């Protein structure tokens, strides 16, 4: 089986994230997707705590979705993928990133190990020249570039500042309001 691995803060998870997953499933790039909210390891500090962000992921009712709340304690993506490769040893893992992440991907910790053991799906975003960055790697064949994806410009940061129901699944929106996350509406 081909398993997508979608790692991020998901603070909050929004329809842009869901559309990425739906697109990859519908176009048969992957068969299932493991979605994982990470702890606050980098300069990007989350507003909602890890439990709330995992809860929001679990509210997404998708047959293809596996919410992993065990392996998100690892600091680096290569550690997460190493662990998942052991758990899902019979499957192929595909790390899902957006084009804005490909810009700094060469600087990720143990990037060569990531590419040796996994493929990387890079989703179009903001008309970034993905191929330019992929060409910097010897392992170009490990990348799947999705240029034709109809990117939707939704920002979790903007959503945290102003909750907009049209960009959230109803269950996630209700969770945010019920738990007074991000200051409510």
Describe the structure.
With 185 residues, the protein is an alpha/beta fold. The protein has a single domain, classed as HUPs (Rossmann fold). It contains eight helices and six strands. It has a six-stranded parallel β-sheet, with helices on both faces.
CATH architecture: 3-Layer(aba) Sandwich
| Individual helix count | 8
Radius of gyration (CA) equals: 16 Å
In spatial order, strands of the major sheet run 3-2-1-4-5-6
Quick one: how many beta strands? 6
**Helix content percent band:** 25-40%
Mean pLDDT: 93
What's the CATH superfamily, by name? Answer: HUPs
CATH topology: Rossmann fold
End-to-end separation: 41 Å
Strand content: 15-25%
Based on CA inertia axes, which overall geometry fits? globular
Write down the domain tally.
1
For the largest beta-sheet, the strand count, sense and barrel status come to: 6 strands, parallel
Given helix and strand content, the structural type is alpha/beta
- Reading the helices and strands in chain order gives EHEHEHEHHEHEHH
In brief:
This protein has 185 residues and is of the alpha/beta class. The protein has a single domain (2-183), classed as HUPs (Rossmann fold), CATH 3.40.50. The protein has helices at 15-26, 50-58, 77-87, 99-102, 111-117, 130-134, 156-161, 170-178, and strands at residues 2-8, 32-37, 65-67, 92-98, 119-123, 143-146.
